[in-house]
Each structure stands twice: as structure tokens, then as C-alpha cells.
């Protein structure tokens, strides 16, 4: 039977399915990218909009929404190739557009990942997934977007929205792309053997450190907001947190660039570690504060997800439980105990404690991965032959590499974030004026999250009619006025 007698979907060579395309890998990678995208939009948009005070709901949600959209455009224009293109410097790729059909429909590749021995033979082959470049461009975009949105959590409730609109794309270009290329795209840390399976350093450590740095330069919230910043909707906050948790299946499951064994192990380990960390954090809240906290549980969930990310596909599942225990304890201690004793941590107003939940948990996960990475799982995914955890024969060198990698990410993000904000501050104030901070969303956007009459509104005679009653009680006349008014709002003076 020749191809002309069967449906095109079942032909051996349909026009849009070249020999190198693996349909399963391509489908999984697009699903994984969409799951990670849903973590940001709408996941973190909902989470940010509900975990803050009501007067900051719109502003917080919009900061996440804007970052998501602006990142995509900058990413396809120049950002992707700066992070995953040809090598320009040991820590940076050559800028270029990822927009043409010629580039996007060819097999995906990361050209800088190829490495040769001194004699010219290949030590590390080029990474070439079995799907088109367009799939990889989109997959890596959602990681870049969520990093900037996580950073935003440190400056909610006071950063000038116009300054944020400039900061987000600049930080993507001059901070994120350098970390991504260095650790993932074929930079010096990638070839040296620093392990960052899916972004414990590139995403979480970077967002935590940069967020803390930005919070320092932007300045604090109003004193009243710092003292009382209760969520406006805890149930909706849980909805966003749930999308974040389940979306992590794509976050860590998509990191191998294939629907393979590593992806399966990574997904299971991710959720085991998150659940363990949530339970440990909640237990500590009960022991020391006598009651479980929903917000605390969400923080514990987050630290577990972050901690497992550097090694999700590289460790045993029992090791994921161990990592979850540490993820529930160490960031809890830094947030609940160390924070109150440190003058620096007290001074810097990190709104959502991104430093503790992402920077601390990210470093913790990177170090634990350096200890616990299993040889066989590591051989499936890591670029440097023979990479494995210290406990499995990797020696102290692997732990040393993890620490050096963390220090590079910390140092570069402090420097780049500071430089970007200094430049922006020359033209635009980084912090809203106090009179706008007193009002919140209405001052920043002219909008409010909830249309509840009388919630801080002043009486406007042009919008509301006044009905005066008297003891005579002309009820028919009052009813006629009510009927005319309809739903416009009525104030009755007795």
C-alpha cells in the first residue's frame, strides 16, 4: 500500500513531520511549557492579587501580567539567543532574533553546549532535542517570565509601576540571560559541571537575590502596610498556589527536553518534596505558634518546590523527602527566627519574603543536589561525564562547584539589579510617593479590585440621589423615586 491510499497522519513522511521530529517529545514539551506558563498567567497573577491587602490587589496582579507579556516580546527579539545562542563570552550568548521561519522550523539546538577535548574530539555533544526550535524558544520563555514575576514579589505594595515597566525587560536582558547562558546555554559553569537541573540557581536564587536587592533600593512600604498586610482573599490565594504547585510538573518534568525516564522521576520527586516541606512547615507553626497557618503552608509548599528544582531528576525519591524536610526547616528558621534578629533583614522590606522562599531554598537545593545526585540518573541528563553527588563518589569537588555557582549567581544579580535600578532612578522615582501609597490601586491605575460601594468612597451627589422622608410618610412618592433610581444607588436621610 503506497502513501496515496492512506491518511496523511499515518503516512511515513508527512510534510510537516521531518525524520528528526519525535511527536511524543514535542507534545510533552509544549504541554510542559504551557503548564509553566499557567504558573505565571494566571497562577501568580491570582496569587499576587489575593495575598496582598485589597488596596494593592490590582497593582500586584498587573505587575505580574505586564512582566509576562513584556518578557515574551523581548525574548523573541533578542533575549533567547543571548541565553541559548552562539557563545559571545563565557557567560553570555550573541543577541539575535528568534522570529524567522527558517530558524524556528529547524531542529532545536543549543550550539554553545558542544565541548571538545584539546585534541579536537568531542567531549560533550551539542544538545539537540527532537522537536523544532520554536518549541524550545517557547519553553525557555516561560522560565524567563516566571523568574521576573517571582522577583516582583519582593517589591509589591510600593514600587512605581512605570519604573517596573522599564525594569522588567532590562533585568531580563542584563541579568537573567547571563545566568541562563552560564548554567544552561553552554557557558563556563555549564561546562565546568555545576549542577542546576531545572533552575534552582538560574531562576530561584536569581529572583530571590535580585528581589531582595530591588527591595533595598526601592525602599519600604508605608509603616501601616508593613505592620498589617493581611491577604484580601485567602481562598483565591490557594487557587493561585494550587496552579503553581501542579504547574511544577512541567517546570521540572520538561527540563530533560524529552518525555523520558528523567522526566518521570523529576515529576514524582517534585511533588513528594513539596508535600514533605509543606507538612514540616505546618508542624513547626503548630509547635511554636499553637496553630497551623494557611499562608505558612503555602510558604512551605513553595520552599519544597524550589529546593527540589536543582536536582529533581537526579536524586532518589527518599532523597526528595530528605530535601523536603530541610526545605521545611531551614527557610522557616531564617524567616521566623533569623529575620527578627538581623538588622539588615529587618531593614529591607521584602514583601512576600522571596529571599527566604527562593534564595535560601534555592541555595539549599543546589548544595543538597551536590551531595545526593545519583550516578545513573546524572548520566542520563548532565553534560559532563562522570558527574555525581559527593555521597556517591563525586568528591568534595562537586560540592565546591555548587557553592561557586551559587556565589556567581548571587554576585552577578546584586550587581546587575543595582546598576539597572540606579539608571532608572535617574529618570523615574523607584517608589510611589506616600500620598499614592495611602490610596493604592486607585492612585496607581484608577481601578479597584472590588466594586463595593462605600468602601473608602466619598459621597458624590452626581452619582447618588437623596430621598428625604418625613413623618407624614408619602410612601407612594418614595416608591416612585426608588423605581426611577433603579440600581444607581440611593441614600436615604431619615
UniProtKB/TrEMBL annotation:
Domain of life: Eukaryota
Recorded topology in the membrane: Multi-pass membrane protein
Residue ranges of the TM segments: 27-49, 61-80, 136-156, 163-189, 201-219, 231-251, 257-281, 293-312, 318-339, 351-374, 403-428
Domain Ammonium transporter AmtB-like: 27-450
InterPro entries (alphabetical): Ammonium/urea_transptr, Ammonium_transpt, Ammonium_transpt_CS, NH4_transpt_AmtB-like_dom, RhesusRHD
Protein keywords: Ammonia transport, Membrane, Transmembrane, Transmembrane helix, Transport
Keyword presence, Transport: yes
One GO cellular component term noted in the UniProt record for this chain: plasma membrane
GO molecular function: ammonium channel activity
Cell location: Cell membrane; Membrane
Role played: Involved in ammonium transport.
Similarity comment text for this entry: Belongs to the ammonia transporter channel (TC 1.A.11.2) family.
Protein name: Ammonium transporter
Organism: Rhynchospora pubera
